[in-house]
Design a protein that fits this description.
Topoisomerase I, Chain A, domain 3, 3 domains, three-stranded antiparallel sheet, Integrase-like_cat_sf
């Protein structure tokens, strides 16, 4: 690791330790790559404070020349903007990806929704990983959240779960309603085994994540973000009474003024339940 890479790693994981473990890991990986690529080009920076606009422009041009997907470059730009803000030089990065000629990413939700294949689910050896997968489906939790999930904290009452900020992407605390018998049954099943985090006693979060990945790949249950999409679509149907566009329902532009207003309120609620803030993020889950 270069000296610049080491300092960037420190800023992500020590000096400005924020967001979830997975977010920090991804951010650190991107910034370490950027440091290596700058050094390879001859930029011998020793400290992040030395970053300038020319360095950002070089990285973007390199990534575009490599033919990387727009979504990949967009994610890398988010890491660069984060570090630019932390060193007090936000203007070294343009606020808009359009200024770099990075195409806008169009989210297509079709095909992303999935439900658990319970035959494959039964082949998983760890009860805690089984619970984690069910939490993803029943409450739309992210992978990290469903491992750090601790019933002793999460269960406010019979009708509400709370997700601690330290479990969540962006550190966003939120509440999720408990409405269905399948959700209540899951809570009963977890309570019968543990009220602590869904991490094996001999493991930490990182090693539990590795076991989750191995087990789900082994039985063919990997790529489970679609379980969050399923949760979002089910909630939309429950709250509006009609299917979302991704499931063949009407597009927002086709709704009456009254239904459009309801659609907006429902999308805002679902966005919050998923741990997001913006209505537009629901386009990736529900369609538009």
């Amino acid at each position: 690791m270069s000296q610049l890479g080491y300092r960037l790693h420190q800023m992500v994981n020590d000096t400005h330790r924020e967001s979830s473990f997975s977010t920090r890991a991804t951010r650190s990986k991107i910034l370490n790559l950027a440091a290596k690529q700058l050094l390879k080009h001859g930029y011998r920076l020793k400290d992040p404070a030395g970053l300038k606009t020319k360095h950002i422009n070089h990285l973007v041009a390199r990534w575009q020349d490599e033919g990387l997907a727009a979504k990949t470059i967009k994610n890398r730009m988010a890491a660069l903007r984060w570090i630019a803000e932390k060193i007090g030089k936000p203007n070294i990065c343009s606020r808009s990806n359009d200024d770099y000629g990075i195409p806008r990413v169009r989210n297509n939700p079709i095909g992303k929704s999935k439900t658990l294949d319970m035959d494959k689910h039964a082949k998983i050896k760890s009860d805690l990983i089984k619970f984690s997968l069910r939490l993803q489906q029943e409450f739309g939790l992210r992978k990290e959240e469903c491992m750090k999930f601790s019933l002793s904290y999460a269960l406010i009452n019979a009708n509400t779960l709370q997700i601690k900020g330290s479990w969540a992407k962006g550190g966003k605390y939120r509440k999720i309603p408990i409405l269905k018998e399948s959700q209540q049954q899951l809570i009963r099943d977890i309570a019968a085994v543990t009220k602590g985090a869904l991490i094996e006693p001999d493991k930490n979060y990182k090693s539990q994540m590795e076991q989750y990945d191995r087990e789900t790949i082994r039985v063919g249950l990997n790529k489970n973000h679609g379980l969050r999409h399923h949760y979002a679509r089910e909630r939309y149907l429950e709250l509006t009474g009609w299917k979302c566009p991704a499931d063949g329902g009407p597009h927002r532009r086709e709704l009456s003024p009254t239904d459009y207003e309801q659609d907006t309120k429902v999308r805002e609620q679902i966005s919050q339940e998923l741990g997001h803030e913006r209505l537009k993020i629901t386009y990736a889950y529900l369609g538009s």
